[in-house]
Write a structure and sequence with these properties.
Layout (H helix, E strand, L loop, with lengths): L10 H12 L3 H10 L5 H8 L13 E9 L2 E8 L5 H13 L5 E4 L3 E10 L3 H18 L5 H5 L3 E9 L7 E9 L6 H22 L4 E8 L7 E9 L10 H17 L1 H21 L4 H12 L9 E6 L2 E9 L13 H9 L5 H24 L3 H16 L4 H10 L7 H7 L4
Antiparallel strand pairs: 1-2, 3-8, 4-6, 4-7, 5-6, 8-10, 9-10
Helix pairs in contact: 4-12, 5-7, 8-9, 9-10, 9-12
Length: about 425
Amino acid sequence: MQINGFSKLSKKDKIDWLLQHYLSDSNEARQILEQYWHTDKALQELHDGFIENSISNFYLPYGIAPNFVIDKKIYAVPMVTEESSVVAAAAKSAKFWSNKGGFKTEIAGTIKVGHIHFTYTGATSELIVFFRNIRRDLLDAVAHLQQNMQQRGGGIKDVNLIDKTTELPDYYQIEFKFDTVDAMGANFINSILEEAADYLNVKAEKMLSGQWQTVMSILSNYTPESLVRASVSCPLEQLQTPRLSGYEYAQKFLTAVAIAEKEPYRAVTHNKGIMNGVDAVVIATGNDFRAVEAGVHAYASKNGKYSSLSHARIENDQLIFWLDLPLAVGTVGGLTRLHPLVKFSLQLLQKPSARQLMRIVASVGLAQNFAAINSLITSGIQKGHMKMHLNNLLNLIEANPEERRRAKAYFSDKKVVFSELKKLLGRD
């Protein structure tokens, strides 16, 4: 059913229209939507303003992974996710590494990139001369947009003409490199790119013999120059399990990582596990997890084949395990001033800078990866995951308190299997 002017309807009228045209049990549907409205009307209006056509709220659990020792500082890390066992795995891994030196991090850079994408039908040599002559004036033309950012130590760090005609006829870029300090910087970058494009359009028409056409001006979510490394290490004897010596464990661990480095089918799931932790912190701190995901997976393919984001080696009888992530995150702007739980998250993390948040996010990603590999090479992934998932299954079949007690006791030393759970409780 099509409708004109949906966005102009009140929230009540939007719901009425949806229920009338798409849902048979309108009373139950209305109740579901309204029970997720916040009782504080002002807070609900704030949430409604985050997106268009809002009719309710969609809640995700907000959890805490304590005991993260990152660069000798202890954190309790907020995580927002719906997936069972993610927070538990991160917390378990954090505790394991907390007395082994914790997580160590390095920032390789914080440069973000944006492009003016354009076509030009004239000689490349003419374009090179034009850009060389106009470069200083171009920076002056957008100087007023970056005054505040420059006062904080950021702004445009470089601008270059890039010839892409071997990949697409007549295609060129003006590439800007930025440091946006503690802001993610998308609006700042895009504003500068669009104003720069307007300036270049005017100058190109007057100074070039060929035809210049700006196609688009936009930041890139691929940030290989905004890179953080998180690592852990410990002597092999500290990795001993009841069934494996420390050396045997480390060898098996290295093989598991090597498989993810070489085999894309495994690498995708391997990296998805990393992003379980990364996304959870990114969402909790009000950052753009979709942008982070896109940039991370592009980085995993930087050598022409999708591969593991994490790596491991044995050196001087120690296991060294590390992760490199391109991250563009911010701790000012956006939702950081609006969403109460985002503000709480940043306070909980001791008001980090964007660099510090990069370090925290990467460490949680590495912790998540360690927990997954550890499970895979020892007990298997399902034992812990399904045990955490047991509550969801019990909720699904609407188990009563006595049934919950029986189920948890029965599966205390077994893998959780849904068919077995139903049989145990007579729900076949």
